[in-house]
C-alpha cells in the first residue's frame, strides 16, 4: 500500500510521514503491525474528543439509519442542522443568532468575506500579518504569509494588512473597509493571544467606519465536529438574509451542514 500511496495519492510535503494507520482509539493511533503511537497531532486539533468517541459514533450511526444527503444547504428542514444552529445561538451574543454551516473553516472564511462585501458595498478587507484563514484563493488573499502565498499570486486584490496587537495600525481601517478579519488567537503565527482590550478596540474602530468584524476560530474552533468535517459562520438573521435574493441562492454549498 505504501507504493500505491506515493503513486496515486497527491502529497502535500516533500517527505510525508507515510505512517500506515490501521485504527485509532482514545489518544492513540495504531499501525498495521499493532504498534501504538501517542497522537499529539489530534487531527490537527480536530479530534479534541479523541479517536472513536462513543457519543459521536452513536450519533453518526443513528443518522445513517435515517438519511445522509438530501439537498443544498438551507432549503430542507433537517433536525441535525436546526439543533446545532440553535445550540450555537444559545452560546453566543444575542445578535449572533443565525448560522450558515459549511464543510470547513476555509469555506466559512469565504462566506464571511462575501457577506461583508455584500452588506457594505465595499471591497477592501483588512487582515493581520502572519494570519491563517484557509487555503483557497480568497482565504489566502487575507493570509499575510508571503512564503505561502508567493507561488499562487496574483491573489484576489483588495487586502490590506496590519500587525496583530498593534493599536497604531488600526488607522488602516477606514471607510473603504468592508471587514476586518482576525483570528481570536493567531495559530500559525505561534499561538499569539490578543492583548487585553485589543479586540474591543478593533471592534470600536469597525463601528466607527461602518465595517464588519470577522473573528475567525479556524484553528481554535476545530473541535466543533468531534473529528468530522464541519465549519460555520455566524451573524444576525438580518445580515444573513441578503443571501436569499438578488441573486436567489446567493451563497450555496452542496454538502455544507451535512446531517451526518
UniProtKB/TrEMBL annotation:
<dbReference type="InterPro" id="IPR050103">
    <property type="entry name" value="Class-III_PLP-dep_AT"/>
</dbReference>
<dbReference type="GO" id="GO:0030170">
    <property type="term" value="F:pyridoxal phosphate binding"/>
</dbReference>
<dbReference type="Pfam" id="PF00202">
    <property type="entry name" value="Aminotran_3"/>
</dbReference>
<keyword id="KW-0663">Pyridoxal phosphate</keyword>
<keyword id="KW-0808">Transferase</keyword>
<dbReference type="InterPro" id="IPR005814">
    <property type="entry name" value="Aminotrans_3"/>
</dbReference>
<dbReference type="GO" id="GO:0042802">
    <property type="term" value="F:identical protein binding"/>
</dbReference>
<dbReference type="InterPro" id="IPR015422">
    <property type="entry name" value="PyrdxlP-dep_Trfase_small"/>
</dbReference>
<keyword id="KW-0032">Aminotransferase</keyword>
<dbReference type="InterPro" id="IPR015421">
    <property type="entry name" value="PyrdxlP-dep_Trfase_major"/>
</dbReference>
<dbReference type="InterPro" id="IPR015424">
    <property type="entry name" value="PyrdxlP-dep_Trfase"/>
</dbReference>
<dbReference type="GO" id="GO:0008483">
    <property type="term" value="F:transaminase activity"/>
</dbReference>
<comment type="similarity">
    <text>Belongs to the class-III pyridoxal-phosphate-dependent aminotransferase family.</text>
</comment>
<protein>
    <submittedName>
        <fullName>Uncharacterized protein</fullName>
    </submittedName>
</protein>
Amino acid at each position: 500500500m505504501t507504493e500505491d500511496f506515493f503513486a496515486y495519492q497527491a502529497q502535500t510535503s516533500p517527505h510525508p510521514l507515510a505512517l500506515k494507520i490501521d485504527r485509532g482509539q482514545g489518544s492513540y493511533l495504531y499501525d498495521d503491525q499493532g504498534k501504538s503511537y501517542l497522537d499529539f497531532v489530534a487531527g490537527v486539533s480536530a479530534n479534541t474528543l479523541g479517536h472513536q468517541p462513543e457519543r459521536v459514533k452513536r450519533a453518526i450511526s443513528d443518522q445513517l439509519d435515517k438519511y445522509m444527503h438530501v439537498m443544498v444547504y438551507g432549503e430542507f428542514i433537517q433536525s441535525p442542522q436546526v439543533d446545532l444552529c440553535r445550540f450555537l445561538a444559545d452560546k453566543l451574543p444575542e445578535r449572533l443568532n443565525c448560522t450558515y454551516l459549511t464543510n470547513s473553516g476555509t469555506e466559512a472564511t469565504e462566506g464571511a468575506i462575501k457577506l461583508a462585501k455584500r452588506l457594505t458595498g465595499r471591497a477592501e478587507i483588512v487582515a493581520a500579518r502572519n494570519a491563517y484563514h484557509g487555503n483557497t484563493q480568497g482565504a489566502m488573499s487575507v493570509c499575510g504569509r508571503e512564503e505561502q502565498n508567493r507561488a499562487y499570486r496574483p491573489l484576489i486584490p483588495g487586502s490590506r494588512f496590519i500587525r496583530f496587537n498593534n493599536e497604531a495600525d488600526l488607522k488602516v481601517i477606514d471607510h473603504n473597509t468592508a471587514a476586518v478579519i482576525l483570528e481570536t488567537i493567531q495559530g500559525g503565527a505561534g499561538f499569539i493571544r490578543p492583548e487585553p482590550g485589543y479586540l474591543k478596540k478593533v471592534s470600536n474602530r469597525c463601528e466607527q467606519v461602518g465595517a464588519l468584524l470577522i473573528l475567525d476560530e479556524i484553528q481554535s474552533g476545530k473541535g466543533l465536529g468531534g473529528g468530522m468535517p464541519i465549519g460555520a459562520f455566524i451573524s444576525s438573521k438580518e445580515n444573513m438574509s441578503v443571501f436569499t435574493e438578488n441573486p436567489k441562492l446567493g451563497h450555496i454549498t452542496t454538502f455544507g451542514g451535512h446531517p451526518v
